[in-house]
Predict the 3D structure of the following.
Amino acid sequence: MLMELDNEEVVIVKWTEEAQAELQKIPAFVRDMAVKAVESEVTARGDDTVTAEDLRRSREKYIAFAEDKPGQKKKTRIAVVRCETVSEVCPGVACMAAFNRRQQYFKSYGDEAEIIGFFTCGGCPGRRVSRLMDSLKKHKLDVVHLSSCMGLSDNYIPCPHYEEIRKSIENKGIKVVDGTHH
Ligand code: SF4
C-alpha cells in the first residue's frame, strides 16, 4: 500500500502474507484504521514491511478499545443529530448531560449504552445525515436521537426538514427517538 510521509515522500508499504491474514481477523469497521495505524508506525521507524507482529501490536495500541470483547454484552449504540444552525450558539452540553445522567429522553438506557456519534445535520436540508448513517451502521448503530433543538419552537425556529431527516434515518432500518433533553 502507498504511504505518504510528512515530507511528501511516498513509500510503498509491503505486507507479509501472515500480516495480510492477521488483517482479516480485525472487524471490517475498524480495518482501515488498523491499516493506517500500523503503516504509520512501520514507516516512522524507517521500515517498509508490515509483519503480523507489527499488526498485533498496533491493534492492541490503537484499535482494541473500539472492538467488542468476546463474551461482552452488546451495548446500545446511540447517535445524536443536531441542528447545524443552532450548533453555532450551543455546544451540546445539555444533550450530553442528559445522556450521562440518563435523564429526559435517555432515561430508559442503563449502563450498557454509549454515544458513538454526535454531529450536526450539515445544514439545510440535513445534507449529511444519510451518509453518516451509512458510516455509523458499520459501527452497529442502534438508535438516533434527534436533538430537542430541532423540534421545539420556543427558542429556535423548528426544523422544516424534520420529517425528511427522520425518514432518511428510518429507511435505513435505524430507530429514531424524538428529543434529547427538553
Ligand atoms: S435541516 Fe433542520 S436541523 Fe438542519 S440546519 Fe436546517 S433547520 Fe437545522
Helices lie at 17-23, 28-44, 52-63, 93-100, 129-137, 148-151, 162-170. The mean pLDDT is 90. The pocket of iron/sulfur cluster is lined by residues 83-85, 121, 123-126, 150, 159, 161 (CB under 6 Å).
